[in-house]
């Protein structure tokens, strides 16, 4: 029997247009800035296949400390495509879902940060209240409020 070699998922990375705006938004959501750095050099280009890249990253961590979101703003080369406003049935990166205590309160706070509601807040059975929002520069983010806990 082959033993599972997967240890964990370290992070999800999103390329953003403005690191400062994205940090502010995800801080309001409840994540904490763990660190910020410039990533460049020959080794970095070898990993990503983008020689000469220079990227500023910010690592955000969830309140439980188990999940991380890496926000990346490419300084060079420039971003070459943008699918942040793609419809929800597009292939590839779609959304990040966060569990929240009070979806209505969170929506109020995030709308003040520029978020917009995609559809409407709906209840799924007796389990969740759910919605999608567009965050900074059109990023699709899901919010889920567990019910009955």
From TrEMBL:
Keyword Metal-binding found: yes
Q: Where is the VOC domain?
A: 8-146
Which UniProt key words apply to this protein? Metal-binding
Per the record's keyword annotation, is Ribonucleoprotein included, yes or no? Answer: no
Do you know which CDD domains this protein is assigned to? VOC_like
Protein name (record): VOC family protein
The protein's organism comes out as: Nemorincola caseinilytica
Q: What is the lineage of its organism?
A: Bacteria, Pseudomonadati, Bacteroidota, Chitinophagia, Chitinophagales
